[in-house]
Amino acid sequence: MALSIRPLGDRVVCKRLASEQKTAGGLYIPDSAQEKPMKCEVVAVGNGKLLDNGKRNQMEVEVGQIILLGKYSGSEVKIDGEEYVIVDQREIMGVIA
Q: Domains, the chain, ranges and CATH?
């Protein structure tokens, strides 16, 4: 099923990846105590920011890449029953190789 949203400018739509259910020591973490994961998969990318000279800034991420976000980055939206995060490209801390 195709995503029914296209981000504008230098925005990126991503989906949070599932967090670990237990600690390294083997203890299980209840859902209420889990932090929001910082790893996300890119599902849609805008065309790039429009510059003053009329050209567009090239996007540094591509659909399918795994990225790292800050804990409170972006805006959470629900589309067709799925939860996504829309962030500006500058909020992305890195790409996992």
A: 11-96 (2.30.33.40)
